[in-house]
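Example 3.2
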Amino acid sequence: MRKQAKRIRRRSTSLVIPIAGLRRLRNAGIYCVPGVTLEFQQSKKRAVLRGLESGGASPEIGRYVTFCDDNGAPVSWLHPVQGIVGNGVHAVVIAEKLVSVEMLRVGHTYDLLIVKHETRVERDSERPRLRSEILFRALRGHLPLDLIGKDRELAGTIAPEFFTKSGERRGIPSRFPVVVKAITRAVNCIDCSHPHFLIGPHVFACWGHSR
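Structure, written as tokens:
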């Protein structure tokens, strides 16, 4: 029973998409890897987290995941990835702590999940483990604009609106509006071939002046 509960918690740190939806994404050629893995650096004798900024869009559907720090600022990639086709893996990130931001778009409907990941040593073990905490989850948000077509100039400056079951607006946490706007653009980026939020080490220090 305890093992089953652990499996459920792991699944909840990624958007739950039905099999038919995953098949639709695959048929559209969209490859998104929302999971974070725990790795070990032999040279520094430390545990780190590894994530893949990935995804893209077709006119009808989009899925994307990117990463930021606790304050919603970009983190630098280990290296970018150039794929044979678009809508796949765009960059690799290695860090001791990461916040993953995942979005799914179907038409003008959006799901959003923000999860904090960190390594932690449990009392009953000396080996570090991956600990994930959901910071924000919102389903069936709405953005009526056509960010692929006539409204594409607004891409990167706007995000969907999310609501409670009673119809009240749910605000995105104040630390994350920039990354959510960036990923909204990403799930409207057809045949995407570049990162939308991770940045190169040479621009990391001046991020606040370059955006």
